[in-house]
Amino acid sequence: MGILYNEQAGIFKLDALDxxxxxxxxxxxxxxxxxYYGKKIIDSDVRxxxxxxxxxxxSVLPGQAGRIMDAVPFEYPTFGCGDYREHCLExxxxxxxxxxxxxxEAHKIYPGKPAxxxxxxxxxxxxxxxxxxxLVCRDKVLNLGVTLLYTVFEQLNVITRAVLVTNEESNAVYxxxxxxxxxxxxHQNFDVLTLHGSWxxxxxxxxxxxxxxxxxxxxxxxxxxxxxxxxxAVLSCDATEDTGEVFAMNLVYSGNFLGVAxxxxxxxxxxxxxxxxxxxxxxxxxxxxxTAPEVVMVYSDxxxxxxxxxFHDLYRGHLIRDVYPDTSRPVLINNWEATYFGFTFDRLIxxxxxxxxxxxxxxxxxxxxxxxRNDETKGLGDxxxxxxxxxxxxxxxxxxxxxxxxxxxxWIEPEMVSPDxxxxxxxxxxxxxxxxxxxxxxxxxxxxxxxxxxxRSHIYDMIHQVLSGANVEYIxxxxxxxxxxxxxxxxxADRQGELCHRYVxxxxxxxxxxxxxxxxLLLENCSAGxxxxxxxxxYYSPQIWASDDSDAIERIQIEMGASMCYPLSAIGAHVSAxxxxxxxxxxxxxxxxxxxxxxxxxxxxxxxxxxxAEKAVIREQVDIYHKYNWIVKEGDLxxxxxPFANRDHACWMxxxxxxxxxxxxxxQTHALPGYFGSARKLRxxxxxxxxxxxxxxxxxxxxxxNGDAHLEGGQNAGKGREVLEVSGSALMNAGYWMExxxxxxxxxxxxxxxxx
Length: 756
Ligand code: GLA
Known about the structure:
Elements: E1 3-6, E2 11-15, E3 19-26, E4 31-39, E5 56-58, E6 65-67, E7 89-93, E8 103-111, E9 130-139, E10 144-153, E11 158-167, E12 173-185, E13 190-198, E14 201-209, E15 213-218, E16 228-236, E17 246-251, E18 257-263, E19 269-275, E20 282-284, E21 289-300, H1 303-318, E22 332-334, H2 336-339, H3 345-357, E23 362-365, H4 393-403, E24 407-412, E25 416-417, H5 422-426, E26 446-447, H6 453-468, E27 474-477, H7 499-517, E28 522-525, H8 535-540, E29 543-545, H9 552-562, E30 571-572, E31 575-576, H10 589-597, E32 602-604, H11 612-634, E33 636-641, E34 649-655, E35 661-668, E36 680-682, E37 692-700, E38 703-705, E39 708-710, H12 711-714, E40 724-727, H13 728-734, E41 736-738, E42 746-754
Parallel strand pairs: 22-23, 22-32, 23-24, 24-27, 27-28, 28-29, 29-30, 31-32
Antiparallel strand pairs: 1-2, 2-3, 3-4, 5-6, 7-12, 8-9, 9-10, 10-11, 11-21, 12-19, 12-20, 13-14, 13-16, 15-18, 16-17, 17-21, 18-19, 25-26, 33-34, 34-35, 35-42, 36-41, 37-40, 37-42, 38-39
Helix pairs in contact: 6-7, 9-10, 10-11
């Protein structure tokens, strides 16, 4: 059992793979205090760690004394009783008082992990995976019960947390803030890592030295958003990809969130994460319980790489429910960048027919198949097929696609409504709005009030009907705008602060229903690209479209950034046309394939207009995907050439769990001059020292000449190279020569297989 309780010492010790987390119930006062988090320790009585921070200070006035609450490391700090640092809980009484003081009351330790009502969370896959500690605390004045849930995944360096707040008083109280977790450290020798960006530039790692003060990552947009991802890590200042300590938090939630790292005036650090308190308030009636979402805490003693691999293992094993657990997901082709809204039945079939000849397995019809939607301005909310555009409807189209030997998938954006739609004309009050205030339009659309059961059920019923009437095996669930003027016509004044959270709960409910009603449906999420790329969404959908920027070179950065905490198998990525529609960049088709194969892999271009030589490359890519994707899906990711730090190259590799095979991808993002050009030797990672590996270049980019892939000379020229047979120790310590490739954006893939 990874959770020990030393009753005499009042100490709880949570041991994961090579980390310990220690909680102390302090003295007669019974504060739930934080004592230690870091590399494993063996002692169970570490009361000496309380140290001077807990001492009562005599006052200059005789007979008076006080404890400096602002110095005590708390497990779940509250507002109002002397702790002025970033707090987790703030409660307002009906009389308008704001103070809360939690003390330990009881606890339970048990195997397994409870589900969180209405919320996604990690789960125990097999008995014995994890153990849970429930610490029950109480504020006696408010008669408020607060249960801190800790689950230890013993085979991973993972502890998850969540919080239940129960009102046991006879009056309602208002929760103004209920974050999910807090960790205290006794020093400030940290850098803080967060993921930032914008639309088409998601998940860029930002590393900031910690000082006294706060570093904040947050969203108030109603979704987790493209500017900040619900991830925050503190790492030792000298930590690298492979060395140093990292303590990371990732919130299993898809709405407004807050993450703060605070260097405070007692020279310590506090990190917290949870639902953003901005525009949040929750009325808790007597007997009601509020559940704060799960925060995942990962510890690494070997840098960011190990942190990422731990997140990947946790999410692949205990969060994502894949409808293709044992096989690779189908290679898809999406018509969006091929046709935008300008498709006809015949054009779609033409694309699908060519795609199927190349081995592509799933055809996805994107935006524009429903209502009166021929451009962005109309039709959202009218989830019935436009038969003028698609005679015979989705049923006929999916049948035709199936006849080509392909699966069929469909795009929806169920949370939205166009002002120019039947739905809006019938139910104008269903859109989120503040009466009397201008309602902002984004992309010509409003957000539906999914906190209302009748609204989400109405939409779901329409979509259910489409899905039941045809063989739809994949859904792309999109969400293309943020919440503004957030208020609900169905909530009373003192519950308006609940809207954003209720909205997210509504989204989770419908995604859950979709999964239950159509268990073999592959759900891919999207939000104007990667604006809702978070673990909450991953619970329902094993893959998420990472960005509307499909440019291979940009995309590598987005994928490597997302890989900080999300597995490659979750990162939606497609090969698109050149010049790229977002950047105008021209890259070789193979390189676009390499970038997309570091994700879920698919195409988003008009394959019917491609040359035979290009289609041959596509066939080859599909083959490579089927042959090697199992390594990407299950293996351990090692980032080698950091595309953020290097102007000229990117490199990553994925190693199978048994370390017998690996796939290395190398991209020359900027060609260099000189005798050896961009040739460079890179040290590989994650292999077995003693094993001898056969290293074979399985694909090399073609040179791009005049905007076209010059297939004759360049294509896969490196495949004829000498195959190298050398030990893991040489590949990891001495390195592997990445030979000089032609110009910018050339790349290659190398397969390694242990032969001895
Ligand atoms: C969003 C998505 C795109 C595409 C369009 C359709 O922008 O991110 O992939 O589906 O919507 O309108």
